[in-house]
Task: inverse folding
């Protein structure tokens, strides 16, 4: 079935019943593989400093990309937001650089997992990094499915916690929008 | 780097395309790129319309109004884009839980006390005046009473005692005649120094309010200052910590360098207020102070304005993670 059609019928439904409780989504998977504290904060709707330079640049790139290119975001079930759908069986995630390529891979694998088990469509994924002229194909395997399942469970547990995990210094802290909230 | 826009002229402030434009009475047009503005403080007679307010809301810019005496009139506080149920609830909970409320109130006083002491110790070293030494002792004595009480009004009065003693020393180290004060008088200020302090404090209240706007905190819930008695109270609490560091130091600097003098003040009714010339001079130094940076242990260079925001983040941590709250204290 065409994924765009799926999104279309779902849209009507979402307008009627806006889901209040947080569900694990692709972005959360992405954050979780980088920093657990970040995932807790974003899961509790505490966003990083919006005037942070990198975040402003990122937002601009996103806006620019989606207004000038053919790319079109597709929101399914209010849970997963696919950047681009190519043909009938390929979903694409667009990123600025390959710095977090592993996290992006897990994010994409989560989409594929979701589509397979909740929607019954088997698809393939592609990470696209236009700036680096790079494309990486991502396919679901049995192992990765298990890993995704484990991650979803862990994230659900994490979000149930009353307090965020204590900050731990990693190399990304230096450029993170949450830096001041963690290390003040 | 966006800055605070101060408008002294009279005229009309408008939105034009995606930018701000100030049309002064003399017919001069000044365009101000919106990305360079973080808040707007208005002293002149400015005509605004809804279209402008919509535009400011979209760009998350607060508008603060001051009257001709330099008193804070009110703010246009745009719809919040940052809303977190979790933090709002926790913030209210900390107010309702008397233990937490008293804890925070004491911490705000402690911050003010420590920063006041830094100022006095500096001037004691400079002048060696024994009277300042005595005042330091008196202030220490007043502060030790903080640990004996759990009552907010009593805490407020202790804070008042500390400030009274502190202000009485101003005449001892200021290098210009005419700025001594005996008592702090607010409504109306009866002498130039009181007028200067009132003006500086109202600027700081507005700046803190703008910083709170960019966080999840609700400015209506304060701890030391009575909530529900006025529209905003958390900004007064946080400002308490920064007054000695930002406002008072700016005042000392501007007086000792003789940048401001008695001629910059005039009487309106039964009070003394700053003239526009005085306001402008003070604001210039105040903004320089706010933009100057200090070295933070983990975060690198941080401006004084940013320090106010960091104070808000510390409160987040206190509310959501039960971490200790330690107010900002200058190190020199």
Result:
């Amino acid at each position: 079935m065409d994924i765009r059609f799926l999104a279309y019928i779902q849209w009507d439904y979402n307008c009627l019943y806006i889901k209040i409780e947080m569900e694990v989504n692709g972005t959360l998977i992405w954050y979780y593989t980088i920093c657990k504290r970040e995932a807790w904060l974003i899961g509790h709707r505490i966003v990083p400093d919006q005037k942070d330079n990198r975040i402003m640049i990122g937002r601009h790139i996103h806006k620019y990309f989606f207004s000038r290119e053919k790319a079109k975001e597709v929101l399914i079930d209010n849970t997963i937001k696919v950047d681009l759908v190519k043909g009938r069986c390929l979903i694409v995630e667009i990123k600025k650089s390959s710095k977090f390529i592993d996290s992006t891979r897990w994010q994409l694998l989560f989409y594929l997992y979701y589509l397979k088990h909740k929607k019954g469509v088997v698809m393939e994924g592609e990470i696209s990094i236009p700036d680096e002229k790079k494309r990486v194909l991502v396919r679901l395997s049995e192992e990765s499915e298990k890993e995704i399942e484990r991650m979803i469970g862990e994230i659900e547990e994490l979000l149930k916690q009353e307090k965020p995990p204590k900050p731990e210094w990693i190399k990304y802290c230096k450029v993170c929008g949450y830096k001041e909230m963690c290390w003040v | 780097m966006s800055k605070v826009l101060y408008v002294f002229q009279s005229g009309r402030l408008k939105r034009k395309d995606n930018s701000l434009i100030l049309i002064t009475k003399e017919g001069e047009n000044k365009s101000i790129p919106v990305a360079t503005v973080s808040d707007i403080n208005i002293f002149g007679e400015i005509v605004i319309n809804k279209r402008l307010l919509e535009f400011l809301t979209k760009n998350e810019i607060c508008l603060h109004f001051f009257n001709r005496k330099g008193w804070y009139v009110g703010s246009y506080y745009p719809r919040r884009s940052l809303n977190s149920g979790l933090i709002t609830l926790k913030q209210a909970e900390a107010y309702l839980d008397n233990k937490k409320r008293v804890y925070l109130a004491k911490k705000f006083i402690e911050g003010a006390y420590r920063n006041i002491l830094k100022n006095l110790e500096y001037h004691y070293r400079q002048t060696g005046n024994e009277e300042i030494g005595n005042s330091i002792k008196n202030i220490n004595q007043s502060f030790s009473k903080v640990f004996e009480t759990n009552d907010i009004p009593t805490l407020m009065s202790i804070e008042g005692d500390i400030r009274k003693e502190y202000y009485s020393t101003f005449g001892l180290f200021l290098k210009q005649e005419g700025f001594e004060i005996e008592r702090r008088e607010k409504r109306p200020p009866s002498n130039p120094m009181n007028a200067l302090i009132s003006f500086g404090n109202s600027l700081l209240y507005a700046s803190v309010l703008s910083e709170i706007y960019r966080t999840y905190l609700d400015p209506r819930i304060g701890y030391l200052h009575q909530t529900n008695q006025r529209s905003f109270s958390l900004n007064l609490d946080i400002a308490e910590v920064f007054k000695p560091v930002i406002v008072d130091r700016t005042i000392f600097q501007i007086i000792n360098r003789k940048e401001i003098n008695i001629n910059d003040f005039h009487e309106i009714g039964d009070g003394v207020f700053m003239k526009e010339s005085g306001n402008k001079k003070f604001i210039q130094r105040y903004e320089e102070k706010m933009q100057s940076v200090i070295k933070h242990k983990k975060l690198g260079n941080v401006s004084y304005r940013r320090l106010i925001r960091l104070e808000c983040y510390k409160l987040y941590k206190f509310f959501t993670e039960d971490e200790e709250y330690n107010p900002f204290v200058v190190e020199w």
Remarks:
- Residues 98-127 of chain B form the longest helix (30 residues).
- The CA atoms of residues 111 and 169 of chain B lie 19 Å apart.
- Chain B is about 50% helix and 15% strand.
